[in-house]
Amino acid sequence: MKQYSKACDENREPILAVIREAFADAHTILEIGSGTGQHAVYFARQLPHVNWQPSDLIENHTSINAWRDEAGIENVLPPIELDVTSGTWPGRKYHGLFSANTTHIMSWAAVECMFGGIGKILQRDARCCLYGPFNYGGTFTSNSNRQFDSWLKERDPASGIRDYEAIAELADANGMELKSDNEMPANNRLLVWRKI
Asked: What is the pTM of this model?
């Protein structure tokens, strides 16, 4: 069954403006946490030079495939199953990585696993683009983010908005250097790293 996220439609244009440049020379993009499948279809249509590889837990594949089938876009590949904590990652390298709204719904241990995997599957000079809300200096950037964090923790105490500095340490430890930190609507950011 095809799922719909209003947030995907609201944030896709600002994200596209950044990833169009970040993925200008990319050919293969792995998306972690493709969710409904909306981003995969939209970005692949706007970036016809890339093959977009959606991934998520198996229960989300039905919606991803529904969006993919409806769009009929050849450069959106069939979704692959990926649980970042499983230790089983694709046995190939990618020119780019995109993930939106994932680190705050995972446990911190899962975030660590995700960055460990990203470090292994990115080619040298590849770009890693991570979208979502982040704290800076241990401080919320808005009251709405503070409220969102409380809601997340009520739902799952292991989740929550992550500190940018902690995320940056993980990226550095897995061979990535920050290229840009981009302000996005609704108190979100889009972080872009380069694989060294």
From this structure: 0.97
Q: Does 151 have pLDDT greater than 90? A: yes
Residue 68: what pLDDT? Answer: 97
Looking at residue 141, what DSSP letter applies? S
Backbone angles phi, psi at 181, to 5 degrees: -125, 105
CB 114, CB 32: distance < 8 Å: yes
1 found inside a domain: no
Please name the residue that has the structure tokens 């460990």: 116
Domain that holds residue 62: 6-195
Mean pLDDT of the chain: 97
**pLDDT beyond 90 at 87:** no
Q: What is the CATH number of the domain that holds 135?
A: 3.40.50.150
Q: Is residue 55 part of a domain?
A: yes
The proportion of the chain whose per-residue pLDDT surpasses 90, expressed as a percent, equals 97
Write the CA distances from 3 to 63, 68, 76, 95, integer angstroms: 6, 12, 17, 28
Domain tally for the chain?
1
Q: Could you give the CA distance from residue 48 to residue 98 in angstroms, rounded to a whole number?
A: 16
- Helices 6-22/38-46 angle, 10° precision: 40
